[in-house]
Amino acid sequence: MTMTVETPLADAKREVPAAFNRVARRYDLLTGLNPGYRRHLRYSAERLALRDDARILDLCCGTGLSTAALRDVYPRATITALDASQGMLDVALTKPWAGEVRWLCGDAMDPAAAGADGPYDGILMAYGIRNVPDADACLANLFELLAPGGTICFHEYSVADSAVSRALWNFVAGAIIIPAGVLTSPGSPIYRYLRRSVVDFDGVRAFEERLRRAGFADVRTKPMDGWQRGIVHSFLAERPR
Ligand SMILES: C[S@@+](CC[C@H](N)C(=O)[O-])C[C@H]1O[C@@H](n2cnc3c(N)ncnc32)[C@H](O)[C@@H]1O
Question: Is the pTM above the cut of 0.90?
Fold first, then answer.
């Protein structure tokens, strides 16, 4: 099946990595047009507040933009980066620093099956949890991968709790992101999928509650700046010792 605008969201999620294969070569160009994209990834990397020599997993690493943020903040860390799109990983592998990272192709639903078996002191999942077919099952696996006392950060859109955030997101997605996606990657359904998957995703309170149900402690949410304030968040949590 190929994702279309009509594909039910639950089915579309299974096709997200294949859809990213088709836009991989233009992904860095498009995100480069988004003010704050890279800076905000750095905020989430910093908010993990890990030791210099931490073991870190970057889940749904894509072309390595989130991996680059981790590497900048923690130059002495041991970083593993996983994505299910070989096309996105192929772009990541062209980065001059790619040799410093262990790259894995696999499903974020079960990172250990792809060789990311931890334990990790920190996990960053940037724009990933919204895309997995079963968020609770994914969280259960991530809890097991995190070392006791370790920190996890979900860098993610969440607009359901605020009518203003939802309206601004729909405006930006409809007026800028989808047209820019049509120009840079004609025929790709991924940017329309992005709009509706964000609208459908948990509100801040619901996602925090989901994290607590999965066993995480000290759950807290931090904002971004710029137009993404109230739209993109760092959701942080710990695995209790
Ligand atoms: C929006 S990109 C984000 C990439 C990167 N984290 C960043 O911040 O630039 C989302 C990535 O999630 C990956 N992805 C989506 N579903 C996945 C899954 N079930 N398992 C692994 N990767 C997945 C896609 O292939 C894509 O590369």
Answer: yes
